[in-house]
UniProtKB/TrEMBL annotation:
Residue runs in coiled coils: none
Pfam families linked to this entry: Polysacc_deac_1
PROSITE patterns hit by this protein: NODB
Domain NodB homology: from-to ranges: 74-286, 637-844
InterPro entries listed in its UniProt record: Glyco_hydro/deAcase_b/a-brl (IPR011330), NODB_dom (IPR002509), Polysacc_deacetylase_ArnD (IPR050248)
Membrane spanning stretches: none
Origin superkingdom: Bacteria
Record-linked PANTHER family: GLYCOSYL TRANSFERASE-RELATED (PTHR10587)
Name of the protein: NodB homology domain-containing protein
């Protein structure tokens, strides 16, 4: 059982004991075990079992086998088979949210009893939960039908009691769906049993390459199942059971584990590899129930398609005639070009703007209060109105329009509603909005419930855009809260310092007991999470300086969507990415003969990086050949501004404003792990003229000092580090791969080592992956530890000037863009303002350079003379 944790062993043994108990010693089970399945507890399913067995006698129908179906759209149904520890499940859920993934979790009953919070996490994230039998046992076709019924009914009740929802689908692990299994499933209340088209374990996509290979083999419409746990057979086939004496390391009846387990980190990394590969291959993920619904409605949809097409054309013609005759008011109605079957939760834009959306018109007093507050704050928002609300509250709708707000359509498809029915509902709502209120719109929102593929397809088919939200302010537990403070603290916590460009924040006006709460909330969110993004100092505030454009605006969704100046495609279209940028992973040839000479050319060091503290794998003689100063070769008074890590809009937007104010460019070395949660911010950095470099994906230094041994040690092996570097670059490529500055790519192949530490293995991986320069720098400002602006300004000056006041030519300042670096923007503003005040004739006046203008082909850090000759001959560098 090598590789298994104590927790996994305990879970397996617990499951084995419980199953043995209820199958062979029913009903005497351990009362003291938390969540034990006993006759007295809520999971007793004796009544359901009796009814199912009776049905088997009278009407032994069989459940249908659900498999994938051929599809013209690139969709697969993603499932996870078997629960695992809660932390791993939470990280998988977070990845699904990050990559807009939908998945069905097939839960085994025993672990659901043991860890009901995991089911809550899955449900709260909007993912689906179905039955994986009590323990995910394999070869269930060999079990008696009574035991099958007992297993299926008991698991179903466990899931129902913990989720308040009836599982509709059953999946049996590695089991032949014989007539007996199908009869037991039907008797237990399952219409479908699920047969996966593709079954994989996490080891099969442990690297990006292996994940890409798995995805390349998929057929659209398949059900793809990821087994989170190893295959365990709790009971041997009784007919073949001959072992009399169990092995020392086995429990009686427990088969030997077939393969070692993988840890939490490997599982999470593998799932992310899979989701990234699916995204790159332009696959979207759906729930298994959507496959079932598709199979049921395909025939009917084909029959109705012709009729609906005629209806759609007739409706479009009618709308064109009406628009030609009437001068209709349009509340920022979006004229959308790209009608893809997707739900927009964050608008892909670099505009410094985000949106408030509202729904629920039942409380007139609340709507009036919200409108008054929006007017006071100068905010225009988007209100999503249902067709029934147009009929019930027409004066309220007119008041919203009169106040200059945008109107969208709210729909709530009923369970089982077909494609054509949803289309018809949207068309009628748009027609009513136009005829009754003179407003056209292309925006549709489903305010609550899981958005199905059928809904997405219907919205796109009628030429509309489906709008979701990045942040839903409403939570059921907040209904009776009395103050906005209470809600804000729980919605945002300590980690969400600010909102972001392109985010959509949704409020519901008919929910809270306190009618004043919504208006208070929208104001408090603006004050604390939007206004704090602006650069506002005593000497430069947006309120006093009209040139200070650092504030973010709150605008209607449609207005942001139609501002094509800022809209971009994410992920970027690979065909728009130049070959030079795209070919990372094809580094220049390196071997044992030329490695050190290449490092000499391509490593810009730092005086604090020494053989004793942060260099591994090089001899002392080798280290003497490496750069230790960190200056870029130039004969001019040029310095370079660089920023590390990642942060929120509140931190990074202030830095961007200061750089924009002084018309200088910097290089941003990005930690890529969380970039996908806010791609707009990274895109903005690139589009404002700055270089983008890499600072790794997880910010693991190549080498660390081990306090136990007193020695330097690597944090990852070569394969792991190579993989991380490749992943980091691909994440940057997906956001800024097609962005250019003065006709050249914004995405560079520059790397800054985390903690500036380097190792021979790390640099080998770096250059083999296609990175061209490793850039540390001449001055580490440690701005994240600064205690005041004056202190940090002095550190910056010391990095730029000598003791005699001369400019340190080629100096590279290392700063940070994290929220902890609270004084960086202001200190940099002071430094640049003082420099600009100097006359051009002042020898202490410096210029700010762009690294990509200097680190060009042929640049050599070890050969200053040759590099300066290159500069003079090429004329490429900005002086």
């Amino acid at each position: 059982m090598k590789g298994w944790t104590k927790a996994m062993i305990l879970v397996c043994l617990t499951a084995a004991v419980l199953i043995v108990a209820f199958f062979f010693f029913k009903p005497q089970l351990a009362q003291e075990h938390r969540g034990a399945i006993t006759v007295a507890n809520p999971y007793n399913a004796d009544e359901e079992v009796s009814q199912a067995l009776e049905q088997l006698k009278n009407n032994p129908e069989t459940a249908m086998i659900l498999t994938g179906s051929k599809s013209s759209s690139r969709q697969i149904a993603l499932t996870f088979d078997g629960l695992t520890d809660r932390n791993t499940i939470q990280q998988i859920i977070a990845l699904l949210q990050r990559y807009n993934g939908r998945a069905t979790f097939f839960a085994d009953g025993i672990l659901a009893v043991e860890y009901p919070e995991t089911l809550t996490d899955i449900q709260n994230a909007g993912q689906k939960i179905e039955s994986y039998t009590l323990v995910g046992q394999s070869k269930m076709e060999a079990m008696p039908i009574e035991k099958l019924v007992y297993d299926f009914c008991r698991t179903k009740k466990i899931i129902r009691e913990n989720t308040r929802q009836e599982p509709a689908l059953l999946k049996c692990n590695d089991t032949k769906y014989t007539a007996q299994v199908l009869q037991a499933a039907k008797a237990a209340g399952f219409t479908y049993v699920v047969q996966s088209d593709v079954l994989v374990n996490v080891k099969q996509f442990s690297t990006p390459a292996s994940a890409a290979a798995v995805v390349a083999s998929l057929r659209p419409g398949s059900i793809v199942s990821v087994r989170l746990k190893n295959k365990i057979e709790l009971f041997a086939n009784e007919q073949k059971k001959k072992d009399v004496q169990p092995a020392v390391d086995k429990q009686p009846g427990l088969k030997e584990i077939s393969q070692p387990s993988v840890g939490e980190k490997e599982v999470v990394r593998a799932v992310e590899n899979l989701l990234i590969a699916l995204q790159k291959a332009k696959y979207s993920t759906v729930y298994v129930e959507d496959i079932a619904n598709h199979n049921q409605t395909t025939a009917k949809r084909l029959e109705n398609r012709t009729a609906f097409a005629s209806l759609s054309k007739a409706t479009s013609f009618l709308q064109e005639q009406v628009l030609g005759l009437l001068s209709c008011r349009t509340a920022y109605a979006a004229e959308l070009v790209d009608h893809k079957s997707q739900e927009i939760k964050m608008i892909s834009t670099t505009e410094p703007a985000l949106s408030y959306t509202f729904g629920g018109l039942a409380k007139r007093a609340v709507v009036d209060d919200v409108l008054n507050k929006l007017n006071d704050l100068g905010i225009k928002a988007t209100f999503f109105v249902a067709e029934s609300e147009m009929r019930k509250y027409p004066e309220t709708v007119r008041k919203i329009i009169a106040n200059g707000h945008e109107i969208g359509i709210a729909i709530v498809p009923k369970n089982g509603e077909t494609f054509d029915e949803i289309c018809k509902s949207i068309i009628l709502s748009r027609q009513q909005l136009q005829e009754q209120f003179g407003v056209t719109t292309s925006l549709v929102k489903q305010p609550w419930g899981v958005v199905t593929d059928t809904t997405r397809e219907a919205v796109a088919a009628v030429g509309c855009q489906l709008i979701g939200q990045s942040l839903n302010i409403i939570q059921s537990k907040h209904k009776d809260y009395t103050s906005a403070e209470q809600v804000i603290n729980e919605i945002f916590g300590k980690s969400k310092i600010s909102l972001a460009r392109g985010q959509i924040v949704h409020f519901r006006m008919d929910f809270y007991t306190n009618d004043k709460l919504v208006a208070d909330l929208l104001e408090m969110v603006k004050q604390r999470k939007v206004d704090n993004i602006a650069y506002a100092t005593s000497f430069d505030s947006p309120a006093l300086n009209h040139a200070n454009d650092s504030s973010y605006r709150l605008k209607p969704v449609g207005e942001i969507l139609t501002n094509k100046k800022y809209i971009y495609q994410y992920p970027v279209d690979p065909s728009n990415v130049s070959e030079r940028v795209r070919n990372n992973g094809r580094g220049f040839p390196i071997d044992q003969h030329n490695f050190l000479s290449e490092v000499e050319k391509r490593y810009i060091g730092n005086e604090d990086v020494t053989y004793e503290t942060s260099i591994l794998g090089f001899s002392k003689m080798d280290v003497r050949r490496l750069d230790k100063q960190g200056f870029i070769h130039t004969e001019d008074n040029v310095i370079f501004l660089t920023f590390d890590d990642w942060g929120t809009d509140a931190a990074i937007n202030k830095i961007l404003y200061v750089l924009r104010k002084h018309q200088v460019a910097g290089t941003f070395f990005i930690i890529t792990h969380n970039v996908a949660q806010n791609p707009n911010l990274l895109r903005t950095i690139a589009m404002q003229g700055h270089d983008i470099g890499c600072h790794s994906d997880l910010h693991k230094p190549m080498v660390v000092h081990d306090p136990r041994t007193g020695k330097l040690t690597a944090t990852q092996d070569k394969e792991e580090y190579t993989q991380e570097l490749a992943e980091a670059y691909q994440k940057l490529l997906a956001v800024v791969g097609d962005a250019t500055v003065n006709g050249r790519p914004a995405l560079t192949k520059f790397f800054r080592p985390p903690a500036l530490a380097i190792s021979k293995t790390g640099l080998e991986s770096l250059f083999a992956d296609g990175y061209e320069y490793s850039v540390s720098g001449s001055c580490s400002t440690n701005d994240y530890k600064a205690e005041s602006v004056p202190q940090l300004v002095k550190i910056m000056k010391d990095g730029v000037y000598t003791e005699n006041g001369e400019v340190k030519k080629g100096a590279v300042l290392v700063m940070h863009m994290t929220d902890r670096a609270a004084y960086t923007a202001m200190s940099l503003d002071i430094l640049l303002t003082a420099n600009e005040a100097k006359p051009d004739s002042d020898p202490s006046k410096f210029k700010v350079g762009r690294l990509s203008d200097y680190l060009i082909a042929g640049y050599s850090q070890i050969d200053r003379k040759k590099t300066l000759q290159l500069v003079h001959s090429s004329g490429n560098l900005q002086k």
